[in-house]
Amino acid sequence: MANNFPSSSGTQPKEPALLHDLNEPLIEHAEGQLFLTETFKIILEEVLCKGTDVKEKVCEWKEPEELAVLLDLELRDTGEPQGKLLKRVKDVAKYSIKTSHPRFFNQLFAGVDYHSMAGRFLTEALNTNLYTYEIAPVFVLVEAEVLRGMHRLVGWTEGDGIFCPGGSISNMYAMNLARYQLFPEIKSRGLWGLPRLTIFTSAESHYSVKKGAALLGIGTDHVILVKVDDGGRMIPEDLEEKIKLAKSEGSVPFLVSCTSGTTVKGAFDPLDHIANLCEKYMLWMHVDAAWGGSVLFSSKHRHLMKGVDRANSVAWNPHKMLVAGLQCSALLLRDTTNLLKRCHSASATYLFQQDKFYDVNLDTGDKSVQCSRKVDCLKLWLMWKAVGSAGLEARVDKAFIHARYLVEQMKKREGFHLLGEPEFVNVCFWYIPPSLRGKEENADYQEQLSKIFNFFMEERMMKEGTMMVGYQPQENRVNFFRVVAFSPLISQKDMDFFLNEIERLGKNM
């Protein structure tokens, strides 16, 4: 059909000729397959070979304006020939951050597991939706089995759960479920008539707790921050005091969000002590173990989560320490009453018909607040099948070994100052360059130290592309580095390089 927009010449444009016979596919099938084949070659070369080679850069830094020109971002009416399009693909790979590189220490995700990646390729190619057995029979069963395996590690013989698009969403699910269990009428009546609800979490918990409170209408003012000790762990005595205070002020406490592996320090809240309080005051106990949950695979380190079996819900991100690939996040529930479905179901008859020829309990879509849901379970299942629980345990233990090595070496080198002994694999430290040593009493010392991190060391690191490591301030502390080394591709040589590079970058500042 002709469009109704005037042409630049003022005359009506001609109707475009049909590009294909209507009995043929719109896009040439063979041409598409060839493009995909060539794209895979680029992925293998630029991302999985160069992107994991220590001799290559972690990033090829470009300023935004320059990068926009290099990528030729503009979208046009006419398509580009395949040769040009493949160059776009190569440029995307070239100028993206290589998060699989052994010297990418910037986030709580890194590295690559090739079995998991194979699962990601497979699910993308199959392009299905995980809401009914009829459309995703394999993946409904796979998700159920992976959740059972995770439940066993938590210490539950049964339960419920669902894969979510990230740990933040898992935390929000927990809040919604806890509120619904206490006030089921909220599903139909909304917030009308509900009392003022209160959530408790540590001062160093993830920001998604406040985001969830805002989204669910609880309000960020009603997220009560509990004091932490020097290691960043929630103090149960302060939690109890704040619960009592909230009740005395007419609030209804309903949830405590604990953290197993805080984002910055990697602290683990004392779950057993908190569980005692949750049972005493009848509160839902949620454990945000998005970062630290993988210690459950390790016989040496699972004690960090002692008491997790007493929780009502657990958020866990295998895309972090286990390197399952983004995104792979699960919400685990101890509940066996179908609370997840009762809270979120809308019973859409066009999708969740009750007269199907198979067991309709296999249709999991009504448990989710989403309709479309990606298949995130296969990557973890395939990786778990490939290396077994023993292989995943070794991966966790290796990360602890690297963290301990870094700490030991920092103590031997001048200029490195730890925030404290790490409980997990987060190593937080300042590096004091030679130019600032002995000047701690200067009035502008803290300001200068912060600037060195932000404007000099980090900038040089990124622009030279040698490695990436995150930094942040916290409370009254100025910018400090946080390094996490858990990729299965890294070695002790990479730890030594990290320390040497920090010293090199800070040498002449």
Strands of the biggest beta sheet: in what spatial order?
2-8-7-6-5-3-4
Under CATH, the topology of one domain is which? Aspartate Aminotransferase, domain 2
Oligomer: single chain
Query: What's the name of the CATH homologous superfamily of one domain?
Result: Type I PLP-dependent aspartate aminotransferase-like (Major domain)
Let me know the number of strands: 12
Rg on CA atoms, Å: 26 Å
Helicity range of the residues? Answer: 25-40%
Q: Helix/strand-derived class?
A: alpha/beta
For the record, the CATH architecture of one domain stands as 3-Layer(aba) Sandwich
Termini Cα gap? 65 Å
H and E order: HHHEHHEHHEHEHEHEEEHHEEHEEH
* Number of contiguous helices: 14
Mean pLDDT: 92
Q: Would you identify the regions where 5 or more consecutive residues have pLDDT less than 50?
A: 1-18
Sheet having the most strands: 7 strands, mixed
Strand content: 5-15%
CATH top-level class of one domain:
Alpha Beta
Principal-axis shape: globular
Protein name: Cysteine sulfinic acid decarboxylase-like
Keywords: Decarboxylase, Lyase, Pyridoxal phosphate
GO molecular function, one term: sulfinoalanine decarboxylase activity
GO biological process, one term: carboxylic acid metabolic process
